Amino acid sequence: MKVRWSVFLLLVLSVFFCIESWRLGLGNLRDPGSGFLPFGASLAVGVLSGILFLKERGKQIDKSSQPVRQAIKAQNSILIVCVLLIYPFLLSKLGYFVSTFLFVLFCVKIVGAQKWRIVLLISIVTAIIAYLFFVVWLDVRTPEGTWMNHFASWRKFLWK
Amino acid sequence: MEVIDNLIYGFSISFLPANLLFCFIGVFVGTLVGVLPGLGPAATITMLLPLTYRLGSPVSALIMLAGIYYGAQYGGSTTSILVNIPGEATSVVTCLDGYQMAKKGRAGPALGIAAFGSFISGTIAVIGLMLVAPTLARFALKFGPPEYFGLMFFTFTIVSYIASGSMIRAFIMVAIGLLLGSVGMDIMTGRYRFTYGILTLVDGLGLVPVVMGLYGISEVLLNVEEKIIRSVYETKIKGLLPNRQDWKKSIGPMSRGSIIGFFLGLLPGGGPIIASFMSYIVEKRISKHPGQFGHGAIEGVAAPESANNSAAVAAFIPMLSLGIPATANMAIMLGALLMYGVQPGPLLIKEAPDIFWGTVTSMYTGNIILLVLNLPLIPIWVKVLRVPYVILFPLILLFCVTGAYSINNNISDIIVMNIFGVVGYFFRKFDFEAAPLVLAYILGPLFEKSLRQSLIMSDGSFLIFLTRPITLGFLIVTTIVLITSLIFKKGPEMIFEEK
Questions:
Q1: Distance CA B32, CA B44 (A)
Q2: Residue numbers of the domain that contains B127
Q3: Residues of A in Cβ contact (< 8 Å) with B452
Q4: Tell me: the pLDDT tens digits for A11-47?
Q5: For residue B180, which residues of chain A lie inside 8 Å, CB to CB?
Q6: Phi/psi zone of residue B388: left (φ > 0), alpha (ψ -120 to 50 degrees), beta?
Q7: 10-29 of A, contacting B, C-beta below 8 A
Q8: pTM of the model
């Protein structure tokens, strides 16, 4: 099953890049074009995947690859991927400190399932250290966050 | 005489207070990642790569990154001996006798001999590096595009041969690496390839996001699926200095390990892993008491620990003098230098002697720091081992996302890294090794340039690769390796079976 899936995905990749490389232009042997090497590489992916399939089909009967057990095991990694995908969005909206705090909070809570008090403590300490290290010491220009800017302007307005 | 002048010049650079500090930070962080299972030097080097931009000087950056790399070889032995879990793949074989020694109450001498062995072999390899690299660089001045093509083709084949798992899978990874390397502007025609109007892809896929994703993120994704329990062997670590008997038994294995490691480190794909296994096998074969191996023989610790360190240093030779990395770690190091605008290769020693000699001499200093640092700090490393993964992994992820962002202050780099994190996770699940991909991805543009230039030179004839003696030599060896792989089992598998 594992081999079949990987070969299928590799073949899709191979066909896609073969077409795209062809479009770029292969040129000729005297003057190879932009698509020359990518075409060769994608063709190699396709041919080698085919050989892999013929060589390894029916080879793996792995008990650990039972779907239910795998789904449970993969739950943590799926959640972490979700957090990672949301983080760039949060970073642009909430700025570095708040988004980092939320990022660590979710990571620790999802996988660690610790008590909220400990999770909050770890998240705050990590966010402060990360901010001091990256933003203050190393001078990494992190986004201020559009929502935080709105919040700051509202605060100024109310303060007046 | 010239060598001594160069050494003095090198030390004048590596002894600068800032460079000494970066060397210290490098070996300290390297030892730390070596101690921590689940965080390898490749991921760490990439994670810290963006930070080295702030150092301002490529010499300081390379000194620090090199420190991480060979420091990790030291650190890996600590976990092998005390926990029976190798911190690095290079220390797998150290578990066999190191942990047995710890169980017998001899953890101290095991850790001590590992540290001394690493120090001695590291120093021997640095001397070798100093002597061999300039000679190799002079030889490489004869290389034109066909020779470089032959060398890279040979490198890809050997790396695929050495890679764990099947050779076909490794070749697939090489091909994917070449595809990834071709994203962005075609250096010969100026045409954009596979960019689809995405601004981030115009300059090609960034090294840091790709490698961080493949190594750092995917490693975390795999680790969070399993509950990692580390039980440190409860023993009092005393008497770190090996006794006379230990020294007598270890000096031969250390010397042989250093030599084996040095030569295997020079070969593409060889590197520290193969060197440690090979030296263990050699010691077991020539030992008068092979039965003691696996039951706490100190030779079984001294030989592999010396070999892996020696190989780690020797791996710098092809990277610095030919511009062709032998391993994925060296490929990342090469990528780092390219990002700094430094082109490693035959002209590096002439054009940037500060980088070459500064880095080489910093390795002497680094080895001394490691020896001084490692022995007294072993109790601290043991405590580090007890840090729960639930605290560790958000920090790794945080370093990755901030590091990827800080390269260009671009959120898209985080997205690219996340994509490669998921891709890397599936590669690991489907038993595809990332190392050949990384190597091909970094060497891809040079490989393509050499191929296309060779064909233009020969008016479209592939015979150019058979008429140039050096290229022909590389191709003959490559063919032999390919035929051997069809007839015999692969190298590492044989070694594992032997073990």
A1: 10
A2: 2-498
A3: 32, 36-37
A4: 999 999 999 999 988 888 888 989 999 999 999 999 9
A5: none
A6: beta
A7: 10, 13, 17, 20, 24, 28-29
A8: 0.81
